[in-house]
Amino acid sequence: MAIIKVQDLKFEYQDIKNAIGGVSLEIEEGEFVCIVGHNGSGKSTLAKLLCGLLVPTSGHIYIDGCELKAELENEENDMLRRRIGIVFQNPDNQFVGVTVKDDIAFGLENRQIERNEIIKRIDEYSRLVGMDKFLDRSPESLSGGEKQRVAIAGILACDTDIIILDEATSMLDPKGVREVLSVISNLKHKKTIINITHNLNEMVLADKVIVMNEGLITASGDVKTILENEELLKEANLVIPDTIKLLNMIRDSKISEDVEDEVCQLIFHR
Amino acid sequence: MNSVVFGQYYHANSWLHRLDPRCKLVSMFMLMIGVFFIRRLDVLALLFALAIILVISSKVPIIKYLKSIKMIATLLIFTFVFQVLFNKTGNELYTFNFTLTYFNLAAGILLLVLFFVLGRLVKKLRLLQFLATLAGAFSLQMFWVYGDVITPYSITIHDASLINSGIILVRVLILVCMSSCLTLCTKPTDITLGLDKMFAPLKKLHLDTSIFTMMISIALRFIPTLINEAFRILRAQASRGVEFSQGGLIKKIRQMVSLLVPMFVIAYKKAADLALAMEARSYIPGHDRTSLYLLKYKARDYIVYVFSLLLLAGMIVVRFVL
Ligand SMILES: Nc1ncnc2c1ncn2[C@@H]1O[C@H](COP(=O)(O)OP(=O)(O)O)[C@@H](O)[C@H]1O
Ligand SMILES: [Mg+2]
Q1: For B193-205, what is the mean pLDDT?
Q2: Is the pTM of this model over 0.90?
Q3: Which of A43, B50, B71, B220 lies 20 to 30 Å from A186 when distance is taken between CA atoms?
Q4: Which residues contact A119 (CB under 8 A, 6 or more apart)?
Q5: Low-confidence residues of chain A, pLDDT below 50?
């Protein structure tokens, strides 16, 4: 059974109708899904709906078969929300703690985990993201990539089944992107991951890519079919990566099958 | 090592640093209340000596305390001087006779001008400079009577008013020393933690203080970030030709606006994002939470509690019984 099932989801902001205009999707447990789409296409809104941070105008969201009713404030609903963690775009504005340690602990404290267990998990997950040497650092003394890794550790420590990354690498420098990416790729198939991104290197990690445009899902499929469909990308106002253009050029000019295969492998790592 | 150091906190290794923040808060509070009961200069002097002992045993450089005192020094000195000059209670102690002449009036004005000129060159210790200027001007009027007399006048010092102003002075000094002791020896985060644990039982009375302490700790977290932002904006505005720290009042106000408006927008955006991030991590205001930090009283905390209680009782006795 799909761990996330969305049926005909709609959402509107006060001034923007159809911010999400009827979205249905299914995501399997352990799947790594990328969502792409130009700015303002509704990706973040969808992510917030999935986390129960926004209340849909209509439609249904099922997490592991249970319906998430964001408007209700009951125990059941809180439990359901706790199965999803999200990392936002801006590393500064989601760092709640005064130190790295405090920040990783924040979600655990809210879940009323025992103190000893909190200490154990801080140790475990800070090591997993390579931040165990920085536990007493304040956010000012950390780079963006380090802050995002702390945010990921905070969510992993809460042991959520689903992790959503909302352009978590878009404000980072190349080094930061690499650091975060290596953490993310290690999580592949251990958690259900929804990665909202513009980065081709992140997309090629995905089992499935979902393209959004104007609050709707316009396509979904594996990376290769999506990226090679120039029409589709143009329609969704997406930039076609140069490497893909190159691949298409090689293909069109019919130089040789071997070169084509090799380039293909280089781009998609498979 | 790299732990958060902002606010006034000064890292050192003294018994005051190791004391439980709750104990420090409560004892400080009791002593401060007590100090207000006391109206005798001799007892206050004793308490001041105690405050000095605290200051020295905190292993924080004295200069840090002097800085706190400096902030209110102007106010303190003027209150003291005005009290002594205009509060005429008790017996006459001494009378200063002054004679104002055209000559030493001019000399006084000249000194004042000198003071302002000096201010352009030497920016430090302005208060001392000012006091020296005043002392110079008045000693001229006392000892150097020359030229046509405008008017003679005298100032009488009374003993009770001198003591009263002394009481105010020492009292404020004690309060400043003690509160600086608290803020210099306790991390802001520990103060919040102490407050949080201290007031947690109030929840049974349907008074929830956890939201309040969460607000303080979030504020503490964001003060350095916002300061960084402020500097960023200052630089950005400077590169657009805004010259800070120059120009008259109107210009200064305009400069402030060019800083405050973007700051407000940034703070608002950050607050909105942060609220979302907190909610996403299952924070529900007012709900029970566990805590990474544990506060545990040690023997020394109990000793300090008992000592401060005794001290408070002593002060009440001094005030109402003796
Ligand atoms: N808080 C908000 N209030 C009003 N409109 C919003 C808000 N957040 C996003 N929008 C609008 O909703 C649309 C979708 O935004 P968003 O989900 O943030 O897109 P994306 O993350 O794909 O860039 C945009 O047109 C945006 O302007
Ligand atoms: Mg977005």
Answers
A1: 88
A2: no
A3: A43
A4: B292
A5: none
3-state secondary structure of A188: strand
Whether A82 and chain B come into contact, CB under 8 Å, resolves to: yes
pLDDT at position A227 is: 85
Do residues A43 and A30 lie in contact, with contact meaning Cβ atoms separated by under 8 Å?
no
Strand partners, B4: none
Written as one letter, the residue type at B321 is V
Per DSSP, the three-state class of B104 is helix
Calpha distance B209→B202 (Å, rounded): 8
Does pLDDT of B3 surpass 70? no
- Strand, coil or helix: what is B167? helix
Structure tokens at A16: 């923007």
| N-terminal to C-terminal alpha carbon distance within chain B | 50
Bridge partners for A91 per DSSP: none
Residue ranges per domain, chain B? 1-187+296-322, 209-285
| Minimal-distance CA residue to ligand 1 atom 26 | A40
pLDDT, tens digit, 9 for 90 and up, residues B222-246? 888 888 888 888 888 888 887 776 6
pLDDT level of residue B6 (50, 70, 90 thresholds): low
Q: Are strands A58-63 and A66-67 parallel, antiparallel or unpaired?
A: antiparallel
User: Left (φ > 0), alpha (ψ -120 to 50) or beta: where does A70 sit?
Assistant: alpha
**DSSP per-residue codes, B38-72:** ---HHHHHHHHHHHHHHHHHTTS-HHHHHHHHHHH
Structure tokens at A245: 């253009």
Q: Are strands A84-87 and A162-166 parallel, antiparallel or unpaired?
A: parallel
State both tokens at B165.
């102003």
Tokens linked to B46: 């004793």
Please indicate if any CB of chain A lies within 8 Å of the CB of B224. yes
Sheet with A208-213: list strands edge to edge.
A84-87, A162-166, A192-196, A32-36, A208-213, A216-221
**B87 or B36: whose pLDDT is higher?**
B36
Question: Which ligand 1 atom minimizes the distance to the CA of A212?
Answer: 22
| Smallest-distance ligand from the CA of A216 | 1
Helix or strand (DSSP H, E) at B137: helix B126-143
Task: Please state, rounded to an integer, the average pLDDT across all residues of chain B.
Answer: 87
Please state, in angstroms and rounded to a whole number, the distance separating the CA atoms of residues B191 and B116.
42
pLDDT single digits (tens) B256-307: 888 889 999 999 999 999 999 999 999 998 888 899 998 999 999 999 999 9
The CA-based angle A99-A103-A105, given to 5 degrees, is: 115
Buried b (16+ CB within 10 A) or exposed e, B39-55: eebebbeebbeebeebb
| pLDDT over 90 percentage in chain B | 35
Lining ligand 1 with CB less than 6 A are A 13, 16, 19, 37, 39-45
The sign one gets for the Cα dihedral A185, A191, A192, A195 is: negative
Nearest-CA residue for ligand 1 atom 16 is A42
Which residue bears the tokens 């990474």? B292
Which B residues, 171 through 190, put their C-beta within 8 Å of a C-beta on chain A?
Answer: 189
